[in-house]
TrEMBL record:
PROSITE patterns: ZF_GRF. The lineage of its organism: Eukaryota, Viridiplantae, Streptophyta, Embryophyta, Tracheophyta. Residues 27-71 form the GRF-type domain. PANTHER family: ZINC ION-BINDING PROTEIN. Residues 73-125 form a coiled coil. InterPro entries: Znf_GRF (IPR010666). Residues 1-21 are annotated as: Disordered. This is GRF-type domain-containing protein. Keywords: Coiled coil, Metal-binding, Zinc, Zinc-finger. GO terms for molecular function: zinc ion binding.
Length: 189
């Protein structure tokens, strides 16, 4: 763009010069940019900043170019700065969100591990309960066997008791008969 513009060192107005010189930008090569005036048919008499080394003793230049009267450039620069600040803020928010997400992932993993430990504990307890239920069932079988034996023995005792009661009754009857016979024979003599 600079090569297409014809440059002269004439100033168009003193207020523009004063304004632009107070806001004189730095060239990308590090030197202060020079205020110049365009003589092209497209932009006649329009002031711009260009590299101060442009066309001086055949030295290369950095192609720096900026319209001096363009507030839109300043606005664009301000807008770019705002956008850069917004991007930096968003990047910071992203980093914070990523850190928070990592914390959440760590917490989820910790809780998953806790759930796995508890599930394993529940499995162990269920297995222990099953084992104890089996022990209780085997004890119940043993108790039933013992109760059957007790019932058989009790039945035998009852039978034996009945037999003893019959014998006692028979003995009593024999005793009574003996006493009666004794009395009969002793009185009859």
């Amino acid at each position: 763009m600079l090569s297409r513009e014809k440059v002269s060192s004439e100033d168009s107005s003193s207020s523009l010069v004063t304004h632009t010189l107070s806001n004189n930008p730095m060239c990308t090569c590090g030197s202060p940019a020079s205020l110049r005036t365009s003589n092209t048919p497209r932009n006649p008499g329009r002031s711009f900043f260009g590299c101060s080394k442009y066309n001086s003793q055949g030295l290369p230049h950095c192609n720096f170019f900026k319209w001096a009267d363009s507030d839109s450039c300043h606005e664009r620069e301000k807008e770019l700065v705002k956008l850069k600040i917004e991007i930096l803020r968003k990047e910071e928010e992203l980093h914070l969100a990523q850190a928070e997400a990592q914390q959440i992932v760590k917490e989820v993993r910790r809780r998953e591990e806790e759930v796995q430990r508890r599930e394993e504990d529940v499995r162990r307890r269920e297995e222990d309960v099953r084992r104890r239920e089996e022990e209780v069932r085997s004890w119940m079988v043993e108790v039933r066997k013992v109760l059957e034996e007790v019932r058989k023995i009790d039945g035998e005792i009852v039978k034996s008791d009945l037999g003893v009661q019959r014998q006692c009754t028979n003995i009593k009857l024999w005793c009574i008969i003996c006493i009666l016979l004794y009395l009969y024979f002793s009185l009859s003599q």
